[in-house]
Amino acid sequence: MSDIRIATAEDQVLLDKEAKYCSYGDTVHYIEPPRIFSRCEGSYVWDTEDQAYLDLQMWYSAVNFGYANPRLNNALKKQIDTLPQIASQYLHKGKIELSEMIAVDAKNKFGLDGRVHFNVGGSQSIEDSLKVVRNATNGKSLMFAFEGGYHGRTLGASSITSSYRYRRRYGHFGERAQFIPFPYHFRGPKGMTKEEYGSHCVQQFARLFETEYNGVWDPKVGQSEYAAFYVEPIQGTGGYVIPPMNFYRELKHVLDQHGILMVSDEIQMGFYRTGKLWSIEHFDVQPDVIVFGKALTNGLNPLGGIWAREELINPKIFPPGSTHSTFASNPLGTAVGLEMFKMTSEVDYGAMVMAKGKYFLEGLQDLQKRFPIIGDVDGLGLALRCEICGPDGFTPDKATLDYMVEEGMKGDMVVDGQKLGLILDVGGYYKNVITLAPSLEISYPEIDLGLKLLEQLLVRATTR
């Protein structure tokens, strides 16, 4: 095991400039000194010393289809040579066709007519969804959201994100959320199956509507003070927590009974991360609004958006000028998005992702049997979790996971004669969960390699 690396002279010059000139408001140095990266391809990134790192988090699931994906890169290059720019209030073919593709897919899957509205990223699209929801519910600004939920860090999005630290210094600007427990079975009450716990959580939520004195419901007029429930079908930053399959169906029944909309935040789990285009598809419910971003353009262009039911977003109820962004529906982003849809339609992409996810999960389950500090593993498609705990296999152990992340970034592990680093993402309520979001194009040998590297980190963690 090597000592902590020292930055090269060239990197140190850049780090000194960063310390003086860059805002730290959007900066997290997971290790010291931080790495500076110079190139990427497939499932790998390389630093300025040309050290390769296998990336198992892929830019928080923004690069679902692999770094420098040739087909998607070429779509961007082609668009640059034809129509690289046009004001978002004007029409171009890509905007119309990408909207059609998303809306027709939703019609086929959910049986609902709807429309698509674009913006420049996930948080901005959450803001647009809040406008749609408030507009459709006569200005109601109270929302339900989940404990452990993450929807972004713009002002409205942070108000419905469960972490108080994201809004502590800024206060509230209209939206407020009541946070409801998520069916996190590993840390739920003992003696219940996963499905029973899911039903229990729904029942606890439903009791809010039993009487006006629970604070959310006026039975005399049949109205709730709350406009919508914002859900991540699979929690992202919360630790890739996967609920029981009965949960959303039962939750949606309660919401429909009380006129509360369901907004499905697919920013991190959309575009086949879980083996389906939208992760909500696994749960047999009809969302009222879908918010998307990140992997729509494979991280090549900041483009996100919303799909909403026709009743919520048609031009009569949501007329021109309701919201606007200079770079929304930009032609570079829509061109990549269209190519992504074409690429994933040419093979059974969902089946491919599910098969790889099953293989990866089986490897994690094998590690769990051999390392007691792994308290829980789970996965849906290639959204996988590995919870690091104390020797009892349950007590959260953030320190050990932090150590593993730092060791992975040293770039000094060796597998079959190849020196490698490993990039992991940390999530979870206690920051003790490895949230694994590898490239959906990852090969089976690369999955094996990732498991071997994880094993080396676990050995280091348990023998240090």
From TrEMBL:
GO function term, MF aspect, one: transaminase activity
Named cofactor requirement(s): pyridoxal 5'-phosphate
Keyword Transferase included in the entry's annotation: yes
PROSITE patterns documented for this protein: AA_TRANSFER_CLASS_3 (PS00600)
Gene3D superfamilies named among the record's database cross-references: Aspartate Aminotransferase, domain 1, Type I PLP-dependent aspartate aminotransferase-like (Major domain)
Keywords noted in UniProt: Aminotransferase, Pyridoxal phosphate, Transferase
Domain of life of the native organism: Bacteria
InterPro entries (alphabetical): Aminotrans_3, Aminotrans_3_PPA_site, Class-III_PLP-dep_AT, PyrdxlP-dep_Trfase, PyrdxlP-dep_Trfase_major, PyrdxlP-dep_Trfase_small
Keyword Iron-sulfur: no
Family affiliation: Belongs to the class-III pyridoxal-phosphate-dependent aminotransferase family.
Name used for this protein in its record: Aminotransferase, class III
Organism: Pseudomonas synxantha
